[in-house]
Amino acid sequence: ITHLYKSLPRVGIDIAHFPEAIMNLLDNAIRAIGGRDGRLILTSAPGQYIDRPGDYVEVTIQDTGGGMSDEIKKGIFRPFSTHSKGGTGLGLVIVQKIIQEHNGEITFNSTEGVGTTFQIRLPVTK
Questions:
Q1: Alpha carbon distance 22, 30 (integer Å)
Q2: Could you say which DSSP state residue 73 is in?
Q3: What is the pLDDT of residues 16-68, one digit of tens each?
Q4: Which residues of 70-104 are buried (b: 16+ CB within 10 A; e: fewer)?
Q5: Do the Cβ atoms of 64 and 38 come closer than 8 Å?
Q6: Residue 44 neighbours by CB under 8 Å, 6+ apart
Q7: Which ranges in the chain belong to alpha helices (H)?
Q8: Cα–Cα distance for residue pair 83/17, rounded to 1 Å
C-alpha cells in the first residue's frame, strides 16, 4: 500500500546510496511478514521539526510482520546483531549510516505480534 504525497519539497539525496537504504528496509519488512497475509505500507509526507528550525520529508515503511521483542530492539543498529536466517547483522547499520550521511534521522517503533514502523526524516534543501 502506498500513500505518497504528490508535491514534496526538495531534499538532497545520493541516488547511488539512498535507494539502498529504502530497499533494505523494504526487504526486512517483506521478510518480517513472511508467508502470512500481511501489509507493507510506504508513505511520504512533508513535516516541520519541533525541536529545531526547518522542514523535512518523512518516508515511513510499516509492516504487519511479527514485530520485535524489547531485547531485539535494543541492538538493531549494532553491527552483527541479527535475528534473521542468513542475515549478516549489517543491514540496519548500513541504513542508519546512509541516513546520517544525508543529515537525516531514522527512528522506529515495533510491537511484538503487531509489526514494525521505520520513519526516515530528511532535511529540506533550500
A1: 12
A2: H
A3: 999 999 999 999 999 999 888 899 999 999 999 988 889 999 999 999 998 99
A4: eeebeebeeeeebeeeeeeeebbbebbebbeebeb
A5: yes
A6: 3, 4, 5, 8, 57, 58, 59, 60
A7: 18-33, 70-74, 91-101
A8: 24
Grid cell for residue 115: 509489526
Q: How much is the pTM?
A: 0.89
Taking the C-alpha atoms of residue 55 and residue 100, their distance in angstroms, rounded to an integer, is 16
How is residue 81 written as a grid cell? 546483531
| Cβ atoms 121, 57 nearer than 8 A | yes
pLDDT single digits (tens) 69-93: 988 888 888 875 665 665 556 689 8
Q: How many of the other CB atoms lie within 10 Å of CB of 36?
A: 9
Residue 77 near residue 96, CB atoms below 8 Å: yes
